[in-house]
Amino acid sequence: MPADKRIAVSEERWKELGEMKKAGQTYDQLIKELIQKANRLELAEKAKKVKNMDEDELSPLDIDE
Is residue 17 part of a domain? Predict the structure, then answer.
């Protein structure tokens, strides 16, 4: 198992994280969940941007079979 790391946070952030944390959930699990949500949001924003692009702004994909 990798060594534990410490992350400095303000007292205010610590309280906010504590309020977000579910019963029985570790801070590691909470942070993992927050990272996953942020990654999904970023992907959704990128997909929306591509969806709204004009066809001439997109690069063609040549798929050789």
Answer: yes
Domain of residue 35: give its range: 11-52
The encoded tokens of residue 58 equal: 């997109």
| 34: amino acid identity, one letter | L
First-to-last alpha carbon distance for the chain, in angstroms, is 44
pLDDT (tens place) for every residue of the chain, 65 residues total? 578 899 999 999 999 999 999 999 999 999 999 999 999 999 999 999 888 887 777 777 777 65
CA angle 15, 17, 21 (to 5 degrees): 120
Per the domain annotation, does 18 fall within a domain?
A: yes
Give the total number of structural domains in the chain.
1
